From TrEMBL:
Chief site of localization: membrane
Protein topology in the membrane: Single-pass membrane protein
Name of the protein this chain belongs to: SPFH domain-containing protein
The Band domain, residue ranges: 17-176
Domain of life: Bacteria
Source organism of this protein record: Lutimonas vermicola
């Protein structure tokens, strides 16, 4: 019984030193005397103490590598591009991922630098902004093809930032501001032109309606005078006396209207023995002209 205790303790020590846990989405590389032995996946695992050792712990989850690349465009503008590459170790190629690459991050970075500096010099600066998705696709395609043999799968490549030189950005902002001011000036000029045209149309329409109103007013005045002369003629008053009576009546009506408003301006017509006669002759001529215009209008209708 006493001799069995050391054996039991030895077995417990072996179990204590040999048992280990592997986390989910993780792979352990086990080496025996410096030589590859096995790959252990998630769960409770056992290795022989002092003989086997854990050489590496590799994550099988998707990882991200951010690389800032400085390069020159076709139009000689230096620009910094931030490339984000998402990659993953293939479960069935854990051996290649560990033993074939000494430093995966440095080698991935070198590939990214080479691919970006091969693509960007073919483009001008504006195309770099417009075709950043094409750049990302080219990086993913070429990087996936290069890294697949080493056990790495490229899930996604993104161009997350494009940063030109400071003086170039300032010049681009000035160009953009000038272009916006030009467009604003064009819109303002169009608005002014439309406003002027609409005002001219409104004024023309107003003049047309005003002229029509004056013509209608004069036509009605002439018609009223004609009816007044006919009425006086029927009462036995000859045309000349009727005309004189109408002129005198309108004269006094005008004076009464002027006197009703204290702010009216009075224009005194020449007052001589022939003034009334001249006024009457003028009114008669106006009536005859109005009658002739009415006759012409009736013939046209």
């Amino acid at each position: 019984m006493i001799t069995a205790i050391p054996i039991i303790l030895f077995i417990l020590l072996i179990l204590f030193l040999g048992l280990f846990m592997v986390k989910q989405q993780t792979a352990y590389i086990i080496e025996r005397f410096g030589k590859f032995s096995s790959i252990r996946s998630a769960g409770l695992q056992f290795k022989i103490p002092f003989i086997d050792r854990i050489a590496a712990r590799l994550s099988l989850r998707i990882q991200q590598l951010d690389v800032v690349v400085e390069t020159k465009t076709k139009d000689d503008v230096f620009v910094h591009l931030k490339i984000s590459v998402q990659y993953q170790i293939l479960r069935d190629k854990v051996y290649d991922a560990f033993y074939r690459l000494q430093n995966p991050h440095e080698q991935l970075t070198a590939y990214i630098f080479d691919l970006v500096r091969a693509e960007i010099p073919k483009m001008i600066l504006d195309d770099v902004f417009e075709k950043k998705d094409d750049i990302a696709f080219a990086v993913k395609r070429d990087l996936k093809e290069a890294m697949l043999d080493y056990g790495y799968d490229i899930i996604k490549a993104l161009v997350t930032d494009i940063d030109p030189d400071g003086s170039v950005k300032e010049a681009m902002n000035r160009i953009n501001a000038a272009e916006r001011e030009k467009v604003a000036a064009q819109h303002e000029g169009d608005a002014q032109r439309i406003l002027i045209v609409e005002r001219a149309k409104a004024e023309a329409e107003s003049k047309r309606l005003q002229g029509k109103g004056i013509a209608d007013q004069r036509r009605e005045i002439a018609k009223g005078l004609e009816e007044s002369v006919d009425t006086l003629n029927k009462a036995g008053i000859n045309p000349q006396e009727a005309s004189a009576l109408i002129v005198i009546t309108q004269h006094y009506d005008t004076l009464q209207s002027i006197g009703a408003d204290s702010s009216s301006n009075l224009i005194l017509l020449p007052n001589n023995p022939t003034a009334a006669s001249n006024m009457l002759n003028d009114m008669t001529a106006s009536l005859l002209a109005a009658n002739k215009i009415n006759e012409l209008n009736n013939k046209k209708k």
